[in-house]
Amino acid sequence: MYGAVTDKKAIYKLSWDRNWSNVSPDIDASVTFQSCVKPRYKSMAPLPSFHIHSASSIRSAEMGFALRSVLLLCGLLAGVLALPEVTYCPKGWTQLDDSCFMFVQQQRTFVDAEHVCILKGGNLASVLDAKENALVLELIREVFDPIEDTWIGLSDGIEEDTFLWTDGSPLDFTAYGAPQPDNFGGNENCVEIDDDNELWNDDTCTDLNYFVCIKEAHRH
After folding, report:
1. At residue 130, does pLDDT exceed 80?
2. What is the reported pTM?
3. Any residues with CB less than 8 A from the CB of 63 and at least 6 apart, and which?
4. Helix (H, G, I), strand (E, B), or coil: what is residue 134?
């Protein structure tokens, strides 16, 4: 049955014009059910509310059904409002996944370049796969085509032949040109992208090169 319900002892009306099968028999006053979820954004339409007006007792079965319906509505709305996390990069940086990259058009030694990247909130770029390597090359080409020698954040300055990223990332990917790294002259401890073939090469850390920085994307 839908619409108003009438008997000898009670007259009540459901504002949503539907039958409720579990309602307490002892309610004598108007009862208002409000949604348990508040909209996150002001632009969202207000959630519906409904009212029960009772002149006497209402069957207990109807209240139980009403409460189950409200709980179901709350659960559904909680899932809808659980929005995914958004990441973004500041102006001047290029985003790839959860990282921001920037080509810096200044020629610095490896150590000075790392310090500049730290001041920008990051480190010299760690390049962890072919996709990131392609992006770094594209950032260089946007300024220089053909490219110029460019530092990335890889070095074996602490221990020979043990290359480490300055941001502590694991070393699972390399893109050296043969026969690099060769430590030519016994003092090549820092890695650049070589202008000859766009591949990685170990070079003297005091050379002046352009460089690429990396930092974590912002989240909100």
Report:
1. yes
2. 0.64
3. 20, 22, 23, 24, 27
4. helix
